Amino acid sequence: MDPITMMMIATAASGAVSAGGQIFAGKSAQVASETNAFNIETQKKLSQTEAFDRHNQRLEVYRSNLSSNIAAFSAMGRDVGSDRSVAAFLEKQRRIATDDTERSDFMGMMESLKLGQEAATTRAEGYAAQTAGYVGAFTTIASTVSQMNMLGAGSPSSTPQSGAPTTSPRPIARGQAAPRTSVGATVSSYLRPRG
């Protein structure tokens, strides 16, 4: 096999391995980002559940305190329905509980939005890595084809012949060896810039 063909095969193999590696790396990054995004979305659902639980616990504390306060005011002989100071106290407790639950709900919603955005960003990064892998592989293949064309342009079979004979103009006498050139001289003649 001539040296140019060997170099072309080596270039093609190297380019194919490199392009395959870039595609694999991009796909692996995309799969990893999908896994991370799934984990973030699971964390988001957990955060929403915790916020809902905090809301319910605060309302339960309020209801329990309301019952205790009504019982305490009744035991003191105060009329819960007509005593304005008792009504003001109970209203203040209701507002505090409402503010607490609204604040907790808002914090839970913000955490949920943050985690949702984080999952979307993670997915986008994975798709970008996958696209970069495909673009890198395409660029590598294009470069490899270009290198192979440059190598092929220098091979004797692809250079136009000017009508010169391909064999020695003198016949070789019987028993006499044909002149030989070294492989290094042949390769260097192929790699010499033309122009």
**Approximate shape:** rod-shaped
The percent of residues in helical segments reads: over 70%
The chain-level structural class is mainly alpha
Oligomer: single chain
Computed Rg? 41 Å
Distance between the termini: 27 Å
> Which regions contain 5 or more consecutive residues with pLDDT less than 50?
181-188
**What are the secondary-structure elements, in order, as H or E?**
HHH
Mean pLDDT: 83
Q: Supply the number of structural domains.
A: 1
Keywords summarizing the entry:
mainly alpha; 78% helix; 195 residues; rod-shaped; 3 helices
Task: Report on this structure.
By secondary structure, the chain is mainly alpha-helical. It is 78% helix and 0% strand. The protein has three helices and no strands. α1 runs antiparallel to α2. The longest helix has 73 residues, at 3-75. The radius of gyration is 41 Å and the shape is rod-shaped. The two termini are 27 Å apart. Mean pLDDT is 83; it is low at 181-188.
Structural topology:
Elements: H1 3-75, H2 84-153, H3 183-191
